[in-house]
Structures are given as C-alpha cells and as structure tokens.
Design brief:
Chain lengths: 682, 579
C-alpha cells in the first residue's frame, strides 16, 4: 500500500546503508592517517551516488528555518535524502546508531547505548567514543567523519524506527509467560489424544500399550495442565501490586487469558480418562478373553433361572419347615463365603485412590498442590491452599446448618417409629451385638439386624453376588459362575418364609407390628439390590469391577443383578402368602418410604432399620458409624469433597450461581456424612 | 448460500491470517454486531483473540505485544480513526480488513499515515451485513426512507450491504424489482451500477442458471408484519425482541441476575436450532422433554448424590450437565415469559381475529370480532390498534367500511393518539393505492379454487392460516410464472430457465414469518436456494419505540418503512417506518 511513503523510506534506508559502508571505509582510512583530498572527493562521490544531491543554486533559503544561505550560513546536504538545509537544521547521526538501524541486530545494539537516549545524548556518546579516532582531524563541523549528516526529517523517521526496533527487542513479562502457556497448550494438544487412545485401549483390556508408559504419559499431561494453570494464574496477577495499577485494558487482557486457559483445562482435563491399576489391568485382560464366553453363559443361565424359579416356588414348602435350622446353619458359612468374595475387593482398597477414575481426578486436582510444593513453588501452593481453605470454611458452616436441620428431621421421624420398634429392639439388641462382633467389616450390615433372619436374608443376596462377582472378576470358569448362580435362587426362595417366621420365633409380636417389620425387611432387600452396583465402591471403597468405566465390567454388573431381581420377585410373591394380613407390600414403594425409619435409631447401633433402608452407603456408614469405620471411605469422602469444591470454585468464577448452589448442596451432603462418620469414630 | 457460514469464514480467515500470538479485534459499531452474530466469545478466545475494542474508543492503552485485527466498515470516520491509529500505533502490527469495497484514495491516505510500517495487510472482506439465520440477513437500518424515497445515506448503505452479500456469496445476479415501488427500482439501479463499476470483483465462475436478485418493497405487504407469530423465533422477537441474537429479559418479573440478557444463537444452541421454526405448542412439549431429559441427568433432588457411584457419574457428566443446565434455564425462562405474555395480553384470541382479518373476507364477522376484542380490557392498546390497522388495510374500500366507528372505539378504550395515528399511517403506507398486487382477494381461477377448497377443509390451525404474500411471489418465481409486468428485469436480459439461487431483499424490512416461509421453501424445493434479506427484521415493539421517539416525523416519512435491528417481527415494523 504505502507505495509513496515506503518508497521514500526505503530510499533513505538504503542510502544509510551505503553511507555506513562508506563511513566505515572512511574510518579505516582515518585510522590509517591516510586521508587525502582525493579520498574525500571519492567519499563525496560515493555519498552522491547513494542519493542525488539537490543543486545548490536551486535552494537560496533554508527550507526549514527560511534563513538565506550565504558564505556564513552555508548549505548542507542531507546524506539520506539529498536535500539542503542550513547548519542549524541539520542533524548528525552516529555510526553505531546507523549500524543499529541498518542491521537491527543484537550485537549492534549491545555496542550502542541505551535505546532511550535522546538525540543529544547520542551526540554526546558519539563524541566520547569517536573523538579519539578523529583526534587527527579537528572536531570542527566539517570533519564529521564518523557521523552522517542528515536533515531533521530524516532523523525523525530514523528515531521512530529505532523505537520500533527497541520495542521488538523488548518482550514484556506477559508475553514471555504467554508464550510458555501456548507451548504447554500445544503439548497438551499433542499428548492428550495419544493418552486417551492409550487409556481407552488399556481400559478395554487390550495389550497394545504398556500400562507404565500410559501412566507416565498421564503424569506428564497432568503436569502440563498444572503448569498451564499456574502460568495463567501468574498472568492474571501480573502487575497487580505495582504502584500505578495497570491499565484496565491490561487487566482485562490478563483476565481473558486466564479465562481461556481455564476453559481449555476444563475441556481437556475432564476428558482425561483414568487408567486401570496393574491388578485391574490383569483382570481386564482376563475378562476380555472371557467376556464373550461369559455372556453366552449368562444368557443361558437367565433362561434356566426362570424355569428354576418356577420349580423352586413349588418346592418352597420343604425349606420352610426346616426354617430355624437352616437359618442357623446358614449363619455359619455365610461370613466365610463372604470373606472369600470380598477379599479381593478389600484388597483393592489399598489402591482405591488410583483405581477409581473419579478419585484419580480428585487426586490430580489435590495433587497439584502437592506437586507444586514438591517443585518448590511456594507461592502457588499458598494461593491454591488459600482458595481451598476459604471454600472449606464457607462450606463447613453451611454444612453444620444442614446437619442440624437434618438431625431435627430425623428426630421427628424417629418418634414415629419408636413405639413400634421399642419392643423389638430390646429383644434383639444383645443378639445383634454378638453377631456384629463376630462378623467382619462387611458383615456389619448383617450384624445390625435385630432378627436372626436378617443375616440370612441379606446373605442370599450377597452370597450369590459375591460368588458371581468373584467368578466374573477373576474370570473363573463358567462352571463355577453358573454354580454360583444356582445358589441364590433356592436361598432367595427361602427368604419370604424366613422373614415371616422370624418375628414369631423371637416373640409374639402383634401382627401389625410384624407386618411393619417385615415390610421393612422387604424394603431392605431392595435397597440392598440397589446398593449393590454401588456397594463395591462404598464397601470396598472401590471394587475393581464397578470402579472401572470400561464397558466390560458393566456387563457383569448387570448380570449381578439377576439373583437379586429374582429375589425381589420372590419376596413380592411370597409376601401375601406368608403374611396374608399384610397388604401385599410393594417393595418398590417401601423402599422409598422406608428411609424414614432409618434414622430412628442412630443411638442404637443394632437397629435393624438402619440397614434395612440403607440404600445409601454413606448414610449407612454414618448411621452405623460406631460399628467400625473404614478409614478409606473417609478419605474417599474427603477427596470427593475436594473435587466438588473444585467445581464450585470453577462455577463461582464463571458466575454460574445456580450450579454453585447445586454443588454446594452436594457438598453439604458429603460433609454431613463425613461429620457423622467422624462423630461415630469418636 | 449460507450467510452465517460466509461471514464466519471471513472472520476465521482474518484471525488465521494474523498468525499466533495475542490479538485484539478492533471493530466499529456495526462490525461488532456482524462478528458477534457468528462467533461466541469463548469460540473466539480459543483463537487467541483476547480483547475486543472499538476503533472509536479513546481509552485504549498502548499494548505493543498485541496484534491488531481491524474489521471495519469503509466509512469516512473509520478511515480517519484508522489514520490516527496508524500515526500512533498502539499495537505491534495491524491487519486491516474492510467490510466492503474501499476507495483507492482512502487506501492511499492510510498508506501515508503508516509511517512506522505497522500495517501488514489491507484486504476487503465482504461481511457487511448481519447474518441472522443461514438464509436470513439484515442490515439493521431503521428508517431507510423518507416518504416514498430513499434517504440517500441509507440507500448507499443498503447498496453496500447488498453488494457485499452478493460478493460474499459469490453471485453476480440478474436483478428483478417490484415495479410499483420507486425505492425498489432505485436500489436495483444502484446495485447494478456497483456491479458494473466493480466488474472485476463480480467475475465469478458462471453457473448454468444465473442467480437472481429480487428486490421488493415492504409496502406491498403491510399485513405480514402486523400479525402475531407463533413460531419460537418469531414469537421471541415479537414479544421480547431479538437484537443481534440477544434477548433482553430484564423486564421479566423475578428474573435472576444472570438471565437478564440471554443469547439465542442457532449456531451454539442445539435446542434453539431445532425449535426456532416450530410453533408454540410444539415448543411447550419440547421444553418439557428437555426438562425431563435434564432431570434425568441432574442428580435427583431427594436422593442427591447418595453413593459414590452416583457421585462419580455426576462428576463425569458435570461439564455436560453444566452446559445443559444453562440451556434449560434459558429456554424455560424464555418460554415461560412468552406464555405469560400470551395469557396476559390475551394473544391467542387476538391472533385468531388477526388471522381472520388477514385471510378471510367475511366483513361482518370480522368487524364483530374486532369490536368484541376492543371491549376486552385484557387486550393492550397496542394490540387493539393493530387490529384496527389490519381491518383498515383489508376493508379499506369495503362498501360498509366502519373504520370511523372503530377509531371511536379505540378512543373510548383509551388508546393513545400516537397509536391511533398509526392506523391512518399504515393505510397510507400499505393501502390499496400503493400496493402493486392484491393482497386479499385471489387473483386467478387457481387461487380462487384453492381458497374455496381451503374453506371446505376447514383451517388446520387458526393461528397460522396466514401465508405471507412473499410465499406466493417466490412460488411464482420458482415456477417461472412471476409476471414481468409487475416484476421487471433490470436490463435487457431475462432469465429463461427457472431460477436456482435467489436472493430476495425487502426494502423496509423482512419478518420472521417470511424467514420461516423461505426456510420451508428451501427445504421443500430441491435445487432452489433462497436467501432472504431486509433493511431490518421487523418487530412491533421496536417500531413502536421508534415511533415514540420521533412522532413528528410520522407524516413526512410515511412512505416506506423499515425497522430497527432485527426486531420488527411483526406488526409495527411498518409503522416504525413511517414514524
């Protein structure tokens, strides 16, 4: 575009280049004390060849100041544009300055004085450095050997140009940080897809990639995220403490950069799936092999079961008569089997942090702090922690309020139930105690029962499940798993009977009461089933199969439902039969209703209703807190809280208040659970 | 033939051309609107554009570490601002894009100002119009005409916008215009002139069938903007007002702070994209589905996050959930407000009578209904005036015209004078005298039969009986039956084949009802692609506001209407023009 102007500028620049050369020559000549008239004539010729000089006669007055030229007031030619000025209106350019402009390279800069020098100081410095060289010649005006004579206009242009060069050389902090930020983002763009590919393949049980490699990559990517976060935060706070606060636009720029970095991290980090642990991976590999097979078998079983169920219903009578004995017999082996089934799960507890993708995420976030600390970035750590602390305080408060309210509600509910339950509770109390003490962590639920029946009831549910899960998880032979499947049905067939027969055996309770208790039990079955998918996480913090996001496990989880569904049906079917007075309680409805009785007995560790309704592992934990806490769960909770906090923080930043509310509510729930847990352990 | 895509591509290209590094986007008032219609902030942030500045803002700081992308209309002021900017550059390097053809002399003066050689690029990117929908554009000009003639400034702006559209779509069209409108003819000539002058720019690959530009005048169909609409986009525009995809909800009672202003953009909002052309009833059920869907994803109220599995699912779905909750709350609010307004203003009943006035010829029943509604206290003065306007337009020459009686009713109802004056204004604007074609009575045997059959079948939906006149015009055009004596070609050449690519431009503003018509035509007619544009998109309220601001202008400007922003969807769009 700017043809004219550019042409002009280009000319003056090329002129200068030529002149710097000639000047260089000239200096050489000077130092050699070999300066003759012929030389100076030559120089002049060169100078004139660069830019055509305006004819002296054409300019009677100085075009700038208007003074007439005379012998005293001599004409001077600008070496850059060739125009004529008087001496006052002429400027001189030092060689280093010219060099700097023509080469615009760093070394020329380094020799040159500071960029902010005014024209005058340029003169001064030139004088200082060059005077020695030009000592031979007088320092009179005519002998401007190392200076280039040019008009003020040309000099202005050159000075502007110099400023531009300086600006180019000088990179503000924000740019440096920003460049780093972009580099990190690029890295993520490169690595994240690679990692996701790896993780997907590993989670599917494939062996294309090695687990270690993927793990390393994951850590690498996470570090980059952390770096992005830290860098953008730094950009955000840049210059905030300066005395004249930065221009609002600068702040806006910083905010926007931070915002876009947050968006970036949000979008990408959340898409980062987790890796299986080594053991899980082994399982996954096995599972993958057997998956097809298993599926077929399970399908077959499903078909068989429906038939079996019919038969069993008919054969209900027999077990019912043997009720008491069977129950006691069952009591013995059940814990064992359970232990068998649950061991791998509890074994998984150790790795729970890593094995749960969710926890991994949490871990990432919290570990930012840890990593930052390790890396010695104390300031980041401080800011991170401060944020965390602030949030924590805030929500602690809210949580207490909520807890108070809840306990009040619980108390009310409790009153409703208490009367009915009083007698039962008294009777069952001691027996339960014993049972509880005898049983392990996982039988805790059972031990809370106030009736003998209870353990058995739950057992059938658990038993098949664990068997099956075990079979599925560890890839045991199909025969085994099918065998495991068989067990539940007969047992479950027994249930209604036991449920019904239990209370009378314990004491002659009025019918309505027994109905109630029975219903609650029935309800408890359902919760248990529901709990089941989540129970691995709840009970074992993370049982490998359930914790894995891969599709494989989900299939087996589904299958695991089978026995329970059956059970449930049995229960429904059995109810009217066993207890004709009861109005055919619908387990589903009850499930919803029965959360009420649950809180009725927080102080009584052995309250049946506690378990009966504990669909929520957290609630169960909290209610049964005294019975034995699992530290891991608490840790899990804490991590969960951290994670939610991170979300709240994010939502707050983005001003999405409704989300904040929702999240806060969740957080409160968690906190309450946690507090209860703690209270329990205390 | 997708205007949103065309503009978006321009913007993307600009940003890409400037390479990596922090960028600032320098715009003027109009280009800000143009860009914001096609790009969301977060989208543009991802492309390293962190600041958005107006070229005319004085409070800009020197930030040499930023690259400047200037997207400006080539107006005199902008060039002046740019010259000042280049003399004292605030940013390290400038990429300059003009939204239209810029004169050589302007380029020269810019070049002279660029002493520090900070300009890296100067280009023309023809995104000089507001892309509302893929097939709908607007120029956001209010009051483009004075009387029946163009305001010269607006004529040139309209010409620029229209030629920019043609350039961005790479079309060098044949031009037809509405003979009855002087404005249409003037505009057609101006466009033709530009095409001739900038013939180099308009040298595109020839298509078999040349594209067609049809220029119409709003005054030929003053009815459409006066009707209440029942499709989502049109309703929102009519009742709430859409301005550059933004909806101001601040007057909604009990609105939460972050919903004061919401953005409805089909580009980024799937629900809106899927529902903008559906009618109100369908929206209601879709909103319900959306809510249910959302409830499913949402952690349940009573059970909250009961297990770790729940929580895990929650956290994993959280980003999606966030996005969804934003969409849900936005649309629920908007639809809630719409239905509140509908019932508050008794709009269903009003609309039924409006439709009857527009589509049927039963004078006595129409008169009766109008009178009845005028007595209804729930009907706002605005709606009342609108009904009378419709009546006045339809039964202008009816033997037993009782307009004076209705005007009396209006006065008795307490309708302010400014509304009452609109009635005569609209008749002057879009009355029989002005119309080139007959809006109300069928013209030929086919149409008469059609209407007869329609009468037999009964109307499927009383609220959507009305078909904008544009539908018939376009239908004829597509079939090659549009009469040349009514819509002549500019120049000697005529189109022998049926047209394929059609740009329709309505002086005085298009409506969302017409946009819907075009959308449906595009869908149902294979091989035909239509883009609709107007000096604005009408909505009643904005017209009204215009009117209240400049009531004294009413007389003078009674000629051709136009309306503001996007908004004259309906009825008062026209009135706005006159006011």
């Amino acid at each position: 575009m700017t043809e004219q102007n550019r042409g002009h500028r280009a000319m003056s620049l090329s002129a200068m280049e030529g002149l710097t050369l000639t000047c260089g020559n000239r200096r050489n000549l000077l130092t050699a004390f070999d300066r003759t008239n012929t030389e100076s004539a030559k120089i002049r010729a060169i100078e004139k060849s660069v830019v055509p000089w305006v004819n002296d006669q054409d300019v009677p007055f100085c075009p700038d100041c208007g003074n007439k030229f005379s012998i005293r007031n001599r004409r001077h030619h600008c070496r850059l544009c060739g125009s004529i000025m008087c001496k006052k209106c002429m400027e001189l350019i030092s060689l280093p300055f010219a060099n700097k402009l023509t080469s615009a390279s760093k070394d020329s800069l380094s020799t040159h004085t500071s960029p902010s020098q005014s024209p005058n100081s340029v003169h001064g410095s030139r004088r200082g450095s060059i005077s020695s060289v030009s000592s031979v010649s007088s320092v009179l005006d005519e002998k401007d050997d190392d200076r280039i004579r040019c008009c003020t206009h040309c000099k202005d242009t050159l000075l502007k140009r110099e400023q531009q060069i300086d600006e180019k050389e000088h990179t503000p902090d924000i740019v440096k940080l920003y460049e780093k930020l972009r580099l990190c983002m690029e890295k993520v763009d490169q690595k994240a897809p690679e990692y996701i590919r790896m993780a997907a393949s590993l989670n599917a049980g494939e062996t294309t990639y090695s687990l270690e490699h993927a793990g390393d990559l994951r850590i690498e990517v996470q570090k980059v995220y952390e770096l992005i976060d830290a860098l953008s935060k730094k950009i955000l706070t840049l210059g905030l403490n300066q005395d004249p606060p930065p221009h609002p636009n600068t702040l806006r720029l910083q905010r926007m950069i931070r915002y876009s970095a947050t968006l970036f991290v949000q979008e990408k980090l959340l898409g980062l799936m987790s890796l299986p642990t080594r053991e899980q991976f082994e399982e996954l590999k096995k599972k993958r092999k057997q998956e097809m097979e298993r599926k077929r078998i399970l399908e077959r079983q499903a078909a068989l079961e429906s038939q079996r169920r019919l038969k069993e219903r008919r054969s209900d009578l027999a077990p019912r008569t043997a009720n008491g004995e069977v129950a006691s017999l069952r009591g013995g082996p059940a814990p064992l089997r359970k232990a068998e089934g649950w061991l791998p799960l509890s074994g998984g507890q150790g790795q729970s942090e890593d094995s749960d993708p969710l926890l991994q995420q949490i871990h990432n976030i919290t570990s930012f702090i840890r990593q930052a600390r390790a890396a010695g970035r104390a300031d980041e750590v401080r800011t991170l922690q401060e944020n965390l602390r602030q949030l924590q305080d805030e929500y602690d408060q809210q949580q207490t309020e909520k807890a108070i309210e809840l306990s009040r509600r619980q108390a009310e509910e409790e009153d409703l139930q208490r009367e009915q339950l009083q007698m039962l509770r008294e009777r069952e109390w001691e027996r339960e105690r014993e049972q509880f003490q005898a049983t392990s962590l996982h039988t805790r639920t059972r031990s809370l029962d106030f009736r003998e029946i209870r353990p058995f009831q739950l057992e059938p549910g658990r038993e098949p499940r664990t068997h099956l899960a075990y079979a599925l998880d560890l890839g045991s032979s199909p025969v085994q798993s099918s065998a495991a499947q068989k067990t539940p049905s007969p047992v479950s067939a027994l249930e209604p009977v036991r449920v019904w027969s239990g209370p009378p055996a314990l004491g002659q309770e009025p019918l309505p009461q027994s109905t109630v208790s029975q219903q609650s039990e029935l309800a408890s079955l359902n919760p248990f089933e529901e709990e089941d998918p989540s129970s691995p996480t709840a009970d074992g913090t993370t049982s490998p199969p359930a914790a894995e996001p891969a599709s494989g496990p989900s299939a087996c989880v589904l299958k695991e439902y089978n026995p329970f569904e059956e059970e449930e049906e049995e229960a429904v079917a059995g109810n009217p039969f066993t207890n004709p007075d009861s109005p055919a309680p619908n387990p589903f409805d009850e499930e919803d209703e029965y959360p009420c009785p649950r809180p009725s007995s927080p102080p009584v560790p052995g309250n049946p209703f506690e378990e009966a309704t504990c669909t929520n592992p957290f609630e169960m934990d909290s209610d049964s807190g005294p019975e034995g806490e699992e530290p891991i769960e608490e840790e899990l909770l804490l991590q969960q809280i951290d994670n939610i906090k991170a979300y709240i923080f994010d939502a707050k930043q983005c001003g999405r208040l409704d989300e904040v509310e929702l999240l806060t509510e969740n957080l409160r729930e968690l906190k309450r659970t946690l507090a209860k847990q703690k209270g329990g352990t205390d | 033939m997708n205007v949103v895509f065309a503009v978006k591509q321009y913007v993307s290209k600009m940003i890409e051309d400037s390479g990596p590094g922090m960028k600032v986007l320098l715009m003027d008032k109009e280009t800000t609107g143009i860009v914001s219609m096609v790009y969301t902030q977060s989208e543009i942030l991802q492309k390293e554009v962190y600041l958005f500045e107006r070229i005319d803002s004085q409070n800009r700081e020197i930030m040499k570490h930023l690259k400047a992308i200037c997207f400006l209309r080539p107006t005199k002021e902008n060039v002046d601002y740019l010259i000042q900017e280049l003399r004292r550059p605030k940013y390290s390097i400038y990429f300059i894009y003009f939204s239209n053809v810029i004169s050589k002399s302007d380029v020269k003066s810019l070049a002279e100002a660029d002493e520090q050689e900070v300009v890296a690029e100067v280009q023309e990117f023809y995104g000089d119009y507001i892309a509302v929908n893929p097939h709908l554009f607007s120029l956001n000009i209010l009051g483009c005409c004075q009387g029946r003639n163009w305001d010269p400034a607006q004529l040139s702006r309209t010409t620029q916008g229209l030629t920019a559209l043609l350039l961005s779509l790479k079309k060098c069209p044949m031009i037809r215009y509405q003979l009855s409108s002087e404005s249409a003819k003037r505009l057609a000539e101006c466009v033709k002139q530009v095409i001739t002058k900038e013939y180099e720019l308009f040298e595109f690959r020839r298509t078999e069938v040349p594209p067609l530009l049809l220029i119409l005048d709003r005054c030929d169909d003053a009815i459409t903007p006066l009707l209440n609409q029942w499709t989502y986009q049109a309703m929102v525009h009519e009742l709430l007002g859409i301005n550059n995809n933004r909806i101001d909800l601040s007057r909604v009672p009990g609105i939460s702070k972050d919903l004061r202003e919401v953005v409805l953009s089909a580009e980024n909002d799937e629900f809106y994209a899927n529902n903008m052309y559906l009618n109100f009833a369908e929206i209601g059920s879709n909103i319900k589905n959306l809510m249910e869907d959302f409830q499913k994803k949402k952690p349940k109220e009573q059970q909250k996050l009961e297990s770790i599995a729940d929580m895990k699912a929650f956290v994993e779905n959280y980003p999606q959930f966030k996005k969804m909750s934003g969409t849900v709350s936005k649309h629920v609010t908007v639809v809630g407000e719409l239905s509140r307004l509908v019932s508050e203003r008794n709009l269903l009943e009003v609309s039924e009578v409006e439709q009857e006035l527009a589509c049927q010829n039963d004078h006595s029943s129409a008169l009766q209904n109008v009178k009845r509604l005028l007595q209804n206290p729930k009907v706002t003065e605005f709606d009342a005036a609108r009904l009378v306007m419709l009546y006045a337009l339809h039964y202008e020459r009816h033997s037993s015209n009782s307009l004076p009686g209705l005007m009396m009713d209006l006065r008795n109802k307490g309708v302010s004078e400014k509304y009452r004056k609109l009635v005569s204004a609209i008749v002057e604007y879009g009355g029989k005298r002005v119309r080139g074609s007959d809006l109300f009575s069928p013209k030929d045997a086919v149409a008469i039969t059609k209407q007869f059959l329609k009468g037999l079948k009964g109307v499927e939906n009383v609220y959507t009986q009305h078909q904008p006149f544009l539908h018939e015009t376009l239908d004829h055009l597509i079939k090659g039956k549009l009469k040349e004596n009514l819509y002549p070609y500019l120049g000697p050449n005529t189109l022998r084949d049926r047209p394929q690519d059609i740009v329709v431009f309505i002086i005085g503003g298009a409506t969302y009802e017409e946009a819907l018509t075009v959308y449906n035509l595009n869908r149902t007619t294979p091989g035909v692609r239509i883009v609709l544009g107007g000096t604005t998109v009408h909505n009643t309220k904005r017209g009204l506001r215009m009117e209240t601001i400049r009531p004294h202008l009413r007389r003078r400007s009674a000629g051709s209407g136009n309306s503001a922003g996007k908004g004259f969807s309906g009825r008062f769009g026209k009135t706005a023009m006159w006011c």
